Amino acid sequence: MYTFIAPEIKQQSFRLDGLFSTVKGFENEPLYFVELQTYKDEEFYERLFGEIFVYFRQYKPANSDWYAIVIYDKRIHETPPHPRYQVLVEQHLRCIYLNELSSSTEDSLGIGIAKLFVEALTKATSLAQQLINQAREDFPDENLQKKVMHLSKPLYFISFPILL
Fold it and tell me: How many whole angstroms separate alpha carbon 81 and alpha carbon 43?
């Protein structure tokens, strides 16, 4: 049995954590929406998929494929999505759990910078120094080193508020 209604839907303001958008000429490549989640949020997936579809409506990107990449600091902060999102989850969602990354990926500078979010202050200080040294080794060009250090600086300050 059904009842037909026409509810008003109010649109709230959304802000995406990040979006890897393609440059002109690469519209056949997927878009990557990136969200960092460091606490349990029962409405996270409703908000995430809402943000993505509002983005599609407002910006009308030419890309037909997309992925939502959710970076969790710990798996315990993930709340399972409602079954109504099953198709989206299966086809478009990828989750990364920073505290579960294997040691084989730890040599990646990008992964190391991301792990600053989840490390204890005592370990994060040494990790930050290792990343600085690794950036110097991986990028012999001094200007490129500065760009990498500048990119990681906001993460460093977020990870070490006591040091400020």
Answer: 9
Same domain, 126 and 159: yes
**Last residue within a domain, chosen from 56, 80, 100:** 100
pLDDT for 50: 93
Give the mean pLDDT of the chain.
Answer: 80
Can you spell out the DSSP letters for 69-88? Answer: EEEESSGGG--PPPGGGHHH
Could you tell me the pLDDT band of residue 6, with boundaries at 50, 70 and 90? confident
Q: How many domains does the chain have?
A: 2
Judgement on whether residues 84 and 121 belong to the same structural domain of the protein: no
Range of the domain at 87: 12-100
Distances from the Cα of 137 to the Cαs of 141, 144, 145, 164, in angstroms?
10, 11, 9, 27
